[in-house]
Amino acid sequence: xxxRFTLNGDEVNxxxxxxxxxxxxxxxxxxxxxxxxxxxxxxxxxxxxxxDGEAINSCLYLxxxxxxxxxxxxxxxxxxxxxxxxERVFVESGAVQCGFCTPGMIMRTYVFLRENxxxxxxxxxxxxxGNICRCTxxxxxxxxxxxxxxxxxxxGK
Length: 157
Prior knowledge:
Elements: E1 2-7, E2 10-15, H1 22-29, E3 48-51, E4 54-57, E5 70-72, H2 85-92, H3 102-115, H4 121-127, H5 139-154
Helix pairs in contact: 2-5
């Protein structure tokens, strides 16, 4: 069957079997390997992408369900070869180590900060609960998000 949707701003279509998971479609058909395959059970967050403005675990999401929807992956966040501000603050704050959890963590943070412009540290901690990171202990990730929030508030955003 053919599925048609918007991927990182471009109208696309793909011929799939109905049981294809979104993560597999993104990685195999579109070669967008920033979306990682981790636990394959919706527990680790490595496969997080944005579908119609909502952060979802693409390992649990069927590709047929993106018909007519808008999908963003980590590759679609920045513009003109530049990193998005969430990506940039993660890099500048040292919140990336092995990098496996980073794309999912950034995608979850991107959506979270659109919904909560001035979160408390507890809000930040809760927002990333579904994303597992074995390298950083979350301290640098939380600090990166707090840094971005402070910069946005300071800039009047």
